[in-house]
Write a structure and sequence with these properties.
single chain; about 375 residues; alpha/beta; Aspartate Aminotransferase, domain 1; Aspartate Aminotransferase, domain 2; 2 domains; seven-stranded mixed β-sheet; four-stranded mixed β-sheet; 17 strands
């Protein structure tokens, strides 16, 4: 097999890793260290919305690196200010304050602290099948038992309700609830899309109870689902919005976005050493410009609808359901998908799973339409073999 035969890796084996070694990326393509090209259908786990090494991001990084690489948040920086202005300018006017960090799990951790401090309450209500990260607080909000058990006891005060069950959510939220934490589309949990009724119900429950509503858009944000932010599809605006992954075009970043009203109630402190560093902010400005000016959310919507039409050709004898929004698609089978992912890899396509029985597609939003069509043909052939 390509990409094997090297010396063993010295990485700490904290998660599974394919033997393939990727050495280069450009647009929708990845090359292994023997020079074979693959189509990225999810290998970047939603970070690569703009594809591999987008030239606009590279130019922004090069220019910023000549000015200043790092500055602590104790000082203002014009690049950080410009990034925050651009980001907030794309959001509803209720969003006025941003805490910058380096990843999705850090964005969630900040939201937990902000919600508990601002409300004076301790409980967090999240959803079954939800995934919010792997640090202790975000892992406590995550549902999957096998991810949590080796690290227990985790942070207390977390409750989980069935996704899309308004009655269960209403019953779970009490006067002790600080925050309701939901993904508009559950990515790691199998690409399950929230219903409008559920999100509107969550907004109503939060308003009545005094809890804060947070949407984890780490994977769904920045055009992935056919809208710049997934919540725009339903018009349900949260109190906290959590972003990361593709926000800076491949450079590590996380953002916890909220309002003046929430900030005024916050007590205590929170800090991220590298959060809001000028390099990430310069990349973030470029990434937002490329996404908006290139109308990539609209492109994701169009290509996603095309995929659903094509994937409807699959035999129901093997496929349980195809679901998703935009270019965030899950194909749930009645069997384990690992052998099919391996076959796709042999054909030159790198897709990922979302649980044992779901193939997850997260291609770059810039994937050429002909390449997307070729990818769908490969999927139809591989799945249709059964």
């Amino acid at each position: 097999m390509t990409g094997t035969g090297r010396a063993p890796s010295h990485e700490f084996a904290s998660s599974s890793q394919r033997p393939l070694s990727i050495a280069r990326a450009e647009g929708a393509y990845l090359w292994d260290d023997s020079g074979r090209r693959y189509v990225d259908l999810g290998a970047t786990h939603g970070v690569g919305n703009l594809g591999g090494s987008p030239p606009e991001i590279v130019r922004a990084i090069e220019a910023q690196a000549r000015q200043i690489l790092y500055l602590g948040s104790g000082y203002r920086n014009p690049v950080r200010d410009a990034f925050l202005e651009k980001l907030l300018g794309l959001l509803p006017p209720s969003f006025t304050r941003v805490f910058l960090s380096n990843s999705g799990t850090e964005a969630v951790e900040a939201a937990i602290k902000i919600a508990r401090s601002a409300t004076g309450r301790t409980e967090i209500v999240a959803a079954m099948r939800g995934f919010h990260g792997r640090t202790l607080g975000s892992l406590s909000a995550t549902w999957r038992k096998e991810l949590k058990e080796p690290f227990e006891p985790l942070v207390p005060g977390f409750r989980h309700v069935p996704f899309n069950d308004v009655a269960a959510l209403e019953a779970a939220v009490t006067g002790s609830t600080a925050m309701i934490l939901l993904e508009p589309v559950q990515g790691e949990g199998g690409v399950h899309v929230a219903s409008e009724e559920f999100l509107r119900g969550a907004r109503s429950v939060a308003d009545r109870s005094g809890a804060l509503l947070a949407f984890d858009e780490v994977q769904t944000g920045i055009g992935r689902t056919g809208r710049l932010f997934a919540f725009e599809r339903w018009g349900v605006v949260p109190d906290l919005l959590l972003l990361a992954k593709s926000l800076a075009g491949g450079i590590p970043i996380g953002a916890t976005i909220t309002s003046d009203a929430v900030e005024r109630r916050f007590r205590g402190s929170h800090h991220s050493t590298f959060g809001g560093n000028p390099l990430a902010c310069a990349a973030g400005i470029a990434a937002l410009d490329v996404t908006v000016q290139g109308r990539l959310p609209e492109r994701a919507e169009r290509l996603g609808l095309l995929a659903k039409e094509r994937l409807a050709e699959l035999s129901s004898a093997r496929v349980r359901e195809v679901r998703g929004l935009g270019l965030m698609i899950g194909i749930e089978l009645k069997e384990r998908v690992a052998p099919l992912l391996a076959e796709l890899e042999e054909r030159g396509f790198l897709a990922i799973s979302a649980g044992a029985t779901v193939i997850r597609l997260l291609p770059p939003l810039v994937i050429p339409e002909a390449e997307w069509d070729r990818s769908l043909n490969a999927l139809l052939e591989v799945i249709g073999h059964g």
